[in-house]
Amino acid sequence: MTESQRPSGEYPMYPSYGNGDAAYPPPPAHQPAQPISTGPGTTVWPGNGGADGHGGGGYGGFGQELPQPAPQPSRHGRRAKRPVALLAAVAIAAAVVGGVTATAVGQFTGTGSSGTDSSSVVSGTTVSQSSTGTVAGVAKAVSPTIVEVGATSTAGESTGSGVIITSDGEIVTNNHVIAGASSIKVTLSTGRTYTAKVVGTDADKDLALIKLEGASGLKTATLGDSSGIKVGDQVVAIGSPEGLTGTVTSGIVSALNRDVTVAKDSEGGQEQGQQGGGSDWPFEFGGQQFNGDTGNSTTTYKAIQTDASLNPGNSGGALINMNGEIIGINSAMYSASSSGGSSSSGAGSVGLGFAIPVNTLKADLDALRDGNSS
């Protein structure tokens, strides 16, 4: 027996179990053993019924240690996991927001995907996002890139239009506007004038490239992709009909791939200028001649047909989609009163105009810049 140093009565009294022979169910594994007092001042810890009859090898420091209850999950541990889960959720949310933001930035800056193949577009001035799809927005953005071209030749003076494609003054126009010209004067939308020289011409495609002398810092047009246009697409035309610089008209693409024939040289392509800067604009379509005689040297190309109003002086100007991209170079217009070989610059547009597809121009630009003439 082990004597307790505690005063008698400190612990509750329990019946004696003798020498450990009595059958007593062992305590559950999850509960600690309770002390047993066999008499005043004596305390016994239950043992394993050792052979010595005194509970040898029992609990409480004389044998095996008390069985410990199964460890319970720490509340602190559970709490510690919550910030980790919260941080993971925040990280996922940040990744999602970042992806959406990157897509939005891509769309606003043009680095993302869009309806127009960016590899086929020559960048320049475009319509602001808030004005996209409006005639007013297109006119505001593109008008500064459209110029009036005045050409003087032995046949007289004529007026056409042109499109600025580089900031130092490269301008695209029709070959028939400047064919045979001894001098060329260009007027910007601001009213400032420059002299220009011919860089290259392609009479077969009715295209020409001229360059302003001493120009810099000019606004440039965006050359789009004419392969994607469809009948019914809304378009805007800007040019200088009858010398009225910066005139804006609108309409739709009314047909594609029309065969239009125009003069290749000044002999048939230009006539004496009329009052107001206008000029006759001879071409052939459907086996008939319009606006005068095209002469013996002609070329035929596939044109975009539009009902946007075009008049003499619009030649060489721009046909533009609603994103502000150039999709064609205006080159001819039909006027019923000028058919049959008669000449009448006073005849107005009846909604049948034609433009050279811009992809034809882009394919020809390098040759024009090299100074090739045909």
Summary of the model, kept short:
The chain is an alpha+beta fold. About 15% of the residues lie in helices and about 30% in strands.
Q: Top keywords for this entry?
A:
374 residues, 17% helix, globular, single chain, 6-stranded antiparallel beta barrel, alpha+beta
> In what range is the share of β-strand residues?
25-35%
Which series of helices and strands comes N to C? Answer: EEHHEEEHEEEEEEHEEEEEEH
Query: Which geometry do the CA atoms define?
Result: globular
The average pLDDT is: 74
Residue share in helices? 10-25%
Question: What low-confidence regions span 5 or more consecutive residues with pLDDT below 50?
Answer: 48-64, 99-116, 268-279, 338-345
**Structural class estimated from helices and strands:** alpha+beta
Largest sheet: 6 strands, antiparallel, barrel
Number of helices: 5
Number of strands: 17
Major sheet: order of its strands? 3-4-5-8-7-6
Radius of gyration: 47 Å
User: How far is the first residue's CA from the last residue's CA?
Assistant: 128 Å
